[in-house]
Amino acid sequence: MTIHEKTLIDPDRLLTSDKLVVDGVDVSGPWNTMILPRTLKDYDVDFENVIARYGGAENVHRCWQCGSCTNSCTMYALNTDFNPRYWIYLTLLGLKQELLKDRDIIWQCVSCNKCTNICPKDVRPEGVMKALAHWIEDEGYREKSHSSLFDEEFTRQCLDRGRIEDTEVMTRFFRDTRQSLIALARRGWLGIFVARMGKWPLLAHGHLGKFLARVPVAGPLRMLAHRLFKPRTPSWGRTGEVLRQYVREQKEAAHA
Ligand code: SF4
Ligand code: SF4
C-alpha cells in the first residue's frame, strides 16, 4: 500500500461536505473527506531503467517508500514541495508528467546526503535527485541549472588538464550563467564574501603594517599567471584521453 499525502492529491479529486450528518453523527468538514479514484494511462514502464542508467541512481528500484529521506531532507525542511520519496515513487511508476510538474524545484537538492545516510535500502536518494535533474535537462524540459553549468566547466578542466584553476572556473561560470559580477558584488553573496575577506577594519584603526601583511598578494598573482599559462598535471595526455573516452561511453550508455 503506497503512502499518500493529502498535499499531493489534485484538489479537484478531494470531496468534502461542510455540513454532513450520518446516522445522527455529525461528520462535517474534514471528517467526511473522500478521494475520487483515477485511472492512470500515461505511465512509462521503462522510465525507472532510464533513470537507473545515470550514475548514482542505480539502486532506485530498491526503494520501499519508508519516507526517511524526505523526513531528513534539508530542502524539505524549507519547502514541503521538495519531496524525494514522492519523486522516487513517481519514477518507479513511470509517471513522467507528474514528475515534470516539479521540474523547477528538483534541481534544488543541495547534496547534503542526509537522505543517503538514513536510507535503509541503500537507494542513495541524492544520486536519484541528481539523475532526475539531469534527465529533465537532457530531455529539454528546462534550461541547464547553474549547478549543471558549474559541473560542466569543472569537469571540462579536469578532463582536459587533470586539474582546475579556480579563477577560470569562476569567470566561465559567471559568463555562462550571464551573471553580472558588479551586481553580485553590490547585493549578492559575492559582496558578502568579499566583505568577510576584507581587512579594512585594520586600516580604519591605523594598523597599516598588519593590513599590508594580510593583503593577499601571492594568491592573485599566481591566479593571473595560471590564466596566462594554464598548468597541467604532468603526463596527463594519455590519462586524460582514457578518461574522456570513458565519460563518452557512459553518456552513450545512459542515452541508449
Ligand atoms: S529512505 Fe530510502 S527506502 Fe525510504 S523512501 Fe527514501 S529512498 Fe525509499
Ligand atoms: S541530498 Fe538532496 S534530497 Fe538528500 S537530504 Fe540533502 S537536499 Fe534532500
Fold topology:
Elements (H helix, E strand, L loop, with lengths): L13 E2 L5 E2 L2 E2 L7 E2 L11 H6 L15 H5 L1 H5 L5 H10 L2 H5 L13 H5 L6 H14 L7 H16 L4 H11 L4 H7 L1 H9 L2 H5 L3 H7 L3 H11 L7 H19 L2
Antiparallel strand pairs: 1-4, 2-3
Helix pairs in contact: 4-7, 8-9, 8-15, 10-11
Bound molecules: iron/sulfur cluster (2 copies).
| CATH fold naming of the largest domain | Fumarate Reductase Iron-sulfur Protein, Chain B, domain 2
Query: Which stretches of 5+ consecutive residues score pLDDT under 50?
Result: none
Going by CATH, the homologous superfamily of the largest domain would be Alpha-helical ferredoxin
CATH class group of the largest domain: Mainly Alpha
- Global structural class: mainly alpha
Strand composition percent: under 5%
The helicity comes to 40-55%
N-to-C order of helices and strands: EEEEHHHHHHHHHHHHHHH
Give the strand tally.
4
Tally of discrete structural domains: 3
The first-to-last residue Cα distance is 33 Å
Q: What order do the strands of the largest sheet run in, or round the barrel if closed?
A: 1-4
Which architecture of the largest domain would the CATH scheme give at its second level? Orthogonal Bundle
Which hetero compounds are present in the coordinates? Answer: iron/sulfur cluster
